[in-house]
């Protein structure tokens, strides 16, 4: 599928798929959305010394980058192991044109951005000290066959239900839930009623949160 670079309202870029009429991120602001959904309402709510994050899916790598940015603000006495699934990796030209490192003041971010995208698939790579990334090229429904540690935090960042409804139905959420311990947190930009009901059926406590710019609500779900 053909993809093109578009600039969102906060000045950060995203990819747009013409055939699906779908952006990888909110047109109201790619960076703002990532920081609001996955950092403010995700990473910042986890206090474990070792945090295992599962992301569906890797996409442009923006969620990894904002997670590293937040991690570097801390005392770094904890470890993050970040597992990211992606079926359709972006190409070198797209990586170059997105240039997400330009969004951050830290001069090291150009090297960090390149290291994220150059990291070999299927192998864990230490991006910065204490932050380990493993990119896994697969269909999301292969998750049940992937060996992972217990996942404290899930970034559920699939394409919207309008274009990929099967990714927002019970079978995939069930696979994700099976990877999580009690008190594990799932965060997503979606606030669909059907998603809330599925998560409740899977024994999650679901909370509606204020959404990122341009979206009224989003979901946090804690496994009981």
TrEMBL record:
Domain MnmC-like methyltransferase: 143-223
Pfam families: Methyltransf_30 (PF05430)
Transmembrane segments: none
Origin: domain of life: Bacteria
Signal peptide: none
Protein name as catalogued: tRNA (5-methylaminomethyl-2-thiouridine)(34)-methyltransferase MnmD
Upper lineage: Bacteria, Pseudomonadati, Bacteroidota, Flavobacteriia, Flavobacteriales
